[in-house]
What does this fold into?
Amino acid sequence: MIKTDILIIGAGPTGLFTVFEAGLLKLKCHIIDALPQPGGQLAELYPKKPIYDIPGFPEIKAGVLVDNLMEQIKAFQPGFTLGEVAQDIDKQEDGSFIVTTNKGTKHHAPIIAIAGGLGSFEPRKPPIQNLAQFEDKGVQYMIRNPENFEGKSVVIAGGGDSALDWSIYLADIADEVTLVHRRNEFRGALESVDRVKELKDLGKIKLITPAEIVDVYGSDHLEGVMIRKNNNPEEDFALSTDYFIPLFGLSPKLGPIAKWGLEIEKNAIKVDNTLDYQTNIPGIYAIGDVNTYPGKLKLILCGFHEATLMCQSAYQRIHPNKRYVMKYTTVGGVTGFDGSKKEAPKAVVKSID
Amino acid sequence: MQDVNITIVDREGVIHEVEAPTDMAMNLMEVVRSYELAPEGSIGICGGMAMCASCQCYIESDTVLPEIESDEEAMLAEAFFVKENSRLGCQIPITENLEGLRVRLAPEEI
It folds into this structure.
C-alpha cells in the first residue's frame, strides 16, 4: 500500500505543479497516470509544439514545460504510479480514501486531487460491430506479450508509427502478418516505412491497401476479419486470422472516474470554484481541464491557480487545528523533502571604510 | 468584415443556420462549439491541433475550402467514419469565402 498526503490523479502540468504547492505546505504527493511518462497531453500529443500563454514564458515548448515542472518539483520527491489507471475508490471510516488501479496497486491518502485533464488515454477503437465481443479473444488494442504471437496469424490495422513498428516486430515472431491501411501512404518514421516495404518484398508482411476491416467473426475466439478494398463493398473478402490488432492511436476518456459518484457536467467534474475546487465528495478535489464551473477556461495557467488554492484547502483538512499563513517563496525559500534548501541570498550588512 | 452564413447539420440531423464572424480568427470547430451544436467534451477535444477527429464534418456544399495540409491529412487517414468529403472543422478558418457553406457533423467516436 502506497501512503501519501495528497494522491494526485493525472501527471499533466496541473498535477505536477500540485506537488510543488503541496510541498511548500510540507504535504507529500503521489501521482497516478495511465501514460508511461509524466506530462499528460503535453508529452503525449504535442511535446514539440510551442505554448505562448504561460506567464513569464513568451514561448515554451510543451515538452520543455514538462521538464521544467519535473525539475521544479524534484526536491519534493513525488511518487509515481505510471502506466496504470485509477479505477476504484474506497472511502475509509476515518474519511481517507483507498484508490486501486487497474493493475491492483493500492494507494491510501486523506486527500484526492483529480487532475485528469481530458481523461485517461485509451486506445481508439474502430466502429466495427461485434468487435467488443472478441476483445481479449483475438482482438487487442495493444501488444503486451509479443511471444504469444509465435506461430500465429495477425492482422494489424492502422497507418501510423505504432502500426508500422509492430508489423515489423511481429514479422519475425508471428507466422503471418497482414497490415491493412485505409490509404496507400503510411505516416511514420522513414526507416519504418522503408523496412515495411522490404519485409513486404520478402513476403514477411502482407500489405493490403487501400482497405479497412469492416467486420470480425468467430465463435468463442476470433477466427477472421472481413476486409473491404477500395471502399467498395463488392470487393469485400474474408481473411482468417488468430489475432486482429487495431492501432489507431490513443484518445482521452474520463474512464472509471466517471463512476466514483462525482457530479459530472459536460464531460467534466463539477467543483466549487468560489472556494477550493472541491467536488461533491469532501476530500476529493478536481483541478485543471477535468473540472467545470461557471466561466471555466481549460488553460494550463488556470490549472496552476486551481492547484494552489486546492492545496491550501487540503492543508486545512489534514491539519484542522493548525494556524497557517501563506508565505512567499522569496521570503521562506523552498525546503525540499530531500534536505535541499533554496533561498534568496541574504544581503550583507557591512560598513564601507 | 462581415459575418458569413453557414448551415450546420448536427449529429442528430437538426439543421442550424448560423452566422459566423470572419474577424475573430475562429475556425469551423469553434463556431460549432460557440453555438453549442455538439455537447462540450465531444468536439474539439485536442483544442484544434488536428490531433483528434472529434470535429470531423462532411462538406455538403461546393464551397471552395483551403487545401488539406499534412496534419489534417494524417489525422483523416486514421479517423473513423471518413468519407470523400470529410474535413476537420478545426482546420477551416472562417473567412468571407465560406458564405453559404453547408456541413454535417460526423458521428462521435465512442
Notes: Chain B touches chain A at residues 39-42, 45-47, 49, 51-52, 74, 77-78, 80-82, 107, 109-110 (CB under 8 Å). Strands of chain B lie at 4-9, 15-20, 56-59, 86-88, 102-105. The longest strand of chain B covers residues 4-9.
